[in-house]
Here is the input.
Amino acid sequence: MSVPLKVPYLDASAIESAATELLRRYAKWKGAPPRPPIPIDDIVEGLLKLSLSVGNLRGRLGNDVLGATWLDEGHVMIDSSLEGNLGRFTFTLGHETGHWQLHRPIIEMEKVTVPLFSREPNEKATPAIVCRTGKRRDPAEWQADTFAACLLMPASDVRATVKAAFGDELPTTEGIEARRKSGEPDPWLRGLADHIIDKGDFENVSNEAMRYRLLDLKLVVDASNPQRKLL
Ligand SMILES: [Zn+2]
Here is the structure.
């Protein structure tokens, strides 16, 4: 029903910089750099001054809607089905923060049309970014997901945790790439992600999110790859 939000191309390193910049602003505001678990609620409500609520988005906007951001009101809503699932709740909140940081300025500057949704039944409909899980391949959705990963699992913290756990030799096994491509479960990578979550205090991050982050940061290497040292 809604057209994809048209956003300019951003590569992963530009998104990483935007997330790092937000963490830097938070550190300045708080007086100390945030350590994992990254206090996403305080970033959203304290630093960005957005209001946050948990509500029945799926029931009202569709079964595939887990998060939404109302731009004029500065309001983020997370679907109540994610309560009790800390990893998914946190990631969805990080994703909405990504829209706020990366896309709201573009929408305001270029006056891009954003569909109108009401926050509550019978309320006036206002511009909102409504996130549908099936739309993950839309550039705006991919960018928001990448932002969430960079914000909740800062590269420097993940790298330091891997180094503390494994020294200079990166964790290595056979067939990582093949399993990633085929989508086959990877118990080795799952175990490694759990270990890093535990050692690095990334307790508000899901195993799945950490698996992708370790792969994206190239902190796990396929045994066939000669590049195994931590740079
Ligand atoms: Zn989204």
